[in-house]
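The aim of this short unit is practical: by the end, you should be able to scan a pair of folded records and say something sensible about each. We start with the first protein, listed as its amino acid sequence and then its structure tokens.
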Amino acid sequence: MTQRRQFLINAPLGLLAVSGAVRSADAAAAIANDPLPQDGATPGAPPTFGATPAVGPEVTPATFAEAEKLMQVSLSPAQRRMAADNWRISLASTMERRTGPKKVALEPGLAPATVWDPASIAPGLKGPAQARFVRTRAGAGPLPAKDEDIAYAPVTQLSRWIESRAISSERLTRIYMERIRRLDPKLRSVITLTDEHALAQARQADREIAAGKYRGPLHGIPYGVKDLLDTAGIRTTWGAEFNRDRVPQQDSAVVARLNAAGAVLVAKLSLGALALNDVWFGGQTVNPWLLEEGASGSSAGPGAATAAALVAFSIGSETGGSIVSPSMRCGVTGLRPTYGRVPRTGAMTLCWSLDKLGPMTRSVEDAMLVLQAISGTDPGDVASRAAKLDFDAGAKVAGLKFGYFADWMKEAPATSVDRAALESLQKMGLKAVPVTLPDWPYQSLNTVLFAEAAAAFEEITLDGRADQLKMQVPDAWPNLFREARFLSAVDFVQGDRLRRKVALEMARIMGEVDLLIVPSLRDEMLTISNFTGHPSLTLRTGFVDVTQARSDWAPNPAQPLPTFNPPRRVPHGVTLIGRLFDEGTIGEVGLALERATGAMRERPPGF
């Protein structure tokens, strides 16, 4: 037993020694046959940070000392020296995709790998369980004798007249084209009048309807789109000087869906260049209610043209207020859908995780009719989602709970019109529920907006095309794109994490109420709801007096805004915020509020 035990102990040791000797001999042979790389790298050594060849320009501790001011961080002298000595080795190579030598082009339609999905924050709040759309049952009434009255009629009426053949699509189209030619020189809301294209579509609609092939409520209805939506064979300029002659070969997804619905594209409408404010290469689009001020933006053309009845309805876009603000200024109804409901394929990208497309109309029900036609997924938009739409124009809204921020309703930008709308909801039987949000720095979310926008327009910024834009003031895109190069990537990630934190707060609030009512231009909610992706409905509910023109641009003492004495009367409204993918509820409440106030019946003087 002692000998056996000794064998079991010693034998493995002997085998290991033999095995090691064999491996050593094999390794020696391998080395002889395959010598070490010329650079002296040890086989099997992992790659490390700080071991790449130095690239890029020399930097010094003073470079970092100045950069600290931009980032609002502080390094010690020793830390600055280490960073300066190591920067060209450790981090400068991360820019090779742009600086070379191995440059990689990123196609305009290429979206980031990460996709914002607002529904993932609150899986239980994904919208209605059923798809339903019930229109107003009342008849359209007789066709008016005056073309102006026909032009101002909502789509709900126009569609009934078209369906019954009380008016042809061609005649309706000619009415709007005549108004564009006569009135748009005052507004500068139309970039391209698509007259031949429109008449061809109108005549086709008339033939189909005469043959009993009625496609639905948008069949034969003339409309306009913000000129950032591609239209095959028709120029799409983005309002930018360098794109004046850009002609895409394919329709955007939204235009294709409106074509399928039988609608008639009569105009490409203005936008502030690259979707900011209301100045484009043709000038400033102005408010038909007050020609001394801009129409606001960036959906300036859709706002002005819809308000002045140059089109029956329009399509705008919003990243941070570009449907809400011109809807307020021009007194139209703007519906910003839930992020992802309407596909953006073929639309100019400003910010992948924020851009939304939606209808701008002269009534709430019109907005819902258009939303129904353009909703749905599209393979070209990785953020697009399938979601049901449940809307009943005759729905009872009594008993619904609406949230409101009490302090916001007491101070600017809220007005007596906002407070009156809140009271109207209560009179209609809705229950008011005070809600609150944490006092957080919501503007920090805009790190995401500025970084994504600068990425989307990197090429035009670096090659100088952005310098061709008319507006070169500090708060215009060219300067903001350049400044965004100096944002911190760390702060971008932290801003994205803050976005999730804010979305969770909104999910908490929307779990307590059916909708919110807010002052439309309350900066916190414009930022919050755009970043969380919640839908909004902005509608005119009254009028206010103003003593000075309003502007989207930062004040410029060298160019003071016009003042008015006596004050001028202009439209004012409120905004309803809905639960994710629940546009139906804000549509039903908005329609009831529209009927209660009657404010949409007035038209801008002179148009």
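Turning to the second protein, read its sequence before its tokens, just as you did above.
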Amino acid sequence: MKQHDVHVHPSRASLPRTGQLAWKIAEVAADHVAVERAVVEMIGNRIIDNAAVAAASLKRRPVVSARAQAVAHRYAPGATLYGFSPEHRVSPEWAAWANGVAVRELDFHDTFLAADYSHPGDNIPPILAVAQHCGRSGADLIRGIAAAYEIHVDLVKGICLHEHKIDHIAHLGPSAAAGIGALLNLSPETIYQAVQQALHVTTTTRQSRKGEISSWKAYAPAFAGKMAVEAVDRALRGEGAPSPAWEGEDGFIAWLLGGPQANYRVPLPERGEPKRAILDTYTKEHSAEYQSQALIDLARRMAPAIGDLDRVREIVIHTSHHTHYVIGTGANDPQKTDPHASRETLDHSIMYIFAVALEDRAWHHEKSYASERAGRPETVALWHKIKTVEDPEWTRRYHSHDPREKAFGGRVVVTLDNGRVIEDELAVADAHPLGARPFGRSDYIGKFRTLADGIVSPTEQTRFLEAVDRVEQLRAGELESLNFVVDASFLGKSEAAGVFDWKSGGRQGAVGMPVSRRSI
């Protein structure tokens, strides 16, 4: 890996393309090195993981709304939507939109945390949608996803967005555009323009994750994926983008990040170096913000020792800066202690999450957030006894580059009404690669079968999983098999019978993605 310094350059000191971050990203994406076996295996895991959480979210309102928007844009060849048969196809940018919301709605798929935060699995819906529309092979798909994960993780390692209240999808737009470029075997010039446009249109604020959090939290990465598809489409037509996007005098760093004096160091693979970044990422066993994963496991472990929770006087969670200020009491968001708060707000309240995990000694993606669950008087009483504090040591470990030392959990001190103190700590979640029960292929399959139960038939589940097992061997035009079809009884009559009737009023998509390989 090579470290690249990225900082503002005034317009009078023209920065050559080869010195720009967008060009360096484009060269990495266009460098088609062989994908290592462990990376292929992990890509398969994450395709399964995305499908699992999408299946569980298909009937949730934000997902239904996004899908209703998508089906107004039928297109041939087009791309498929989670849950529906291959003949029901929409324009790829709208498939990226609908499928992206389905993947993100439950806050239940993969994560990478470093200088900033990310869910790199959000790259998969737009890349898969374009791959289906363009008739690409499984090997092409693998190449595109590996490139997207590499760029996404490297940007997250090098550039902190949240310090300046910029939402983390500003790293996702460029990485998805780069991944689509790698998928389609595009030139560095085309990828360069697409990456810059994707950055330019996906820079939004973190208010989407502050105060009363709305369903936009699920829509935001889908929006970035949709913008990435459109950015590549526009670049394929020969159009340019604002440049240099990161380093320009009026660009991203100058006005939205650290300013003219800031310098960022972004690691990127050398030419010919395999793209391995997906192996640094980790998924979730529990449907909640990643910082809560280890603390849910710790709550389950501590509950027997605490015993009668009515005797708890106070619980203090000593943790990292991120946990304290984003999902803890350091956020100073009264909504995080409100039993009437939205699900999106509750899954960003470690006080609520820890209280419920202590009481139930378990976590469920729906039951743990139900309004009647959040409103239990005993839960509210315990919830309001919990606070977080930043511990410099946990902050240091959070930012450590040593994977054996890096930590996302905390130390919990419970004081009972008789003065007895019970404390314990956990650095990483049980499902983390260095945790007590690291997730492997069998765990991803188990997660999929559990979340798809009653939604996708056992036969269809098996067909989908077998397609993932041979993803590298899938030929051009066979990527539709990486979708799953739901049981007809699962959908309401209106959607099953009416949403896909393709009446004449439906608008058609208008993308220029190449359908044949002659333009690639």
